[in-house]
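Lecture notes, unit on protein representations.

Consider one protein chain, 290 amino acids long.
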Amino acid sequence: MATQHSRLAARIMVAPSVLLLFLWMIVPLLATIWFSFQNYNLLNPMLTGFAGFNNYYYFVTDVAFWGAVLHTLQIVLGVLFITVIGGIALALLLDRPFWGQGIVRVLMIAPFFVMPTVSALVWKNMFMNPVNGMFAHIAKGLGLQPYDFLAQAPLLSVILIVAWQWLPFATLILLTSLQSLDSEQMEAAEMDGAGWWSRFIYLTVPHLTRAITVVILIQTIFLLSVFAEIFVTTNGGPGTATTTITYLVYVQSLLNYDVGGGSAGGIIAVILANIVAFFVMRMIGKNLEA
């Protein structure tokens, strides 16, 4: 009886926060769906009424749409490749005992807590600036011509900036998994004559598989909505070289003042993100069950 009362009391205390979170998520979603079926352009307030699926049709048939889909997938795959490979390398390095290991681990995690806009500004002005950036000074010191990363390789630059933010997260997850590896198994393999590479391929990598799948799942969900880094560094350019679906929604809503079209784009982005997340979760679920 006391258990039932305690459960009821816990539900009553949790209910306000759950209701608030529910309203925080559902109300904007319902408003976005409603606007996506309306003619609502701030530059033409006289044009109102039900638009049907016209907003969806115009957004999908926009010349920049499929390019934005491709750029979004390139950013996701590029960042995943860098963070998974780099995370494994750093996890192996940090797993070895050395002086100041605790401090290095804390510093390694630090970039993950930097706001995306701040990190993008730092990379844009302190590192990639072709005149006063650190890379430009290094190139000049070597007698080379400074390279304008954001103008000549904008998509790769965005991928590097985003990967720098997510690398600590991947490293932390992989390092935690690596520390649970059975040391006796590694020692037995070494005694049987297995070299470092063989132990890495046949023991370490299979052990890290679950951690890698978790990293891929979580990062994919967040990387599909990358916006701040693009807005701060390239503004979607040059041309549409770094325009993603999220940035295309921003352009339609806040630059073209087309609330209906932007809302339709937002719903399309949510649908595409859920499709990608569904397939990723299916693949990862099979991997975790194995």
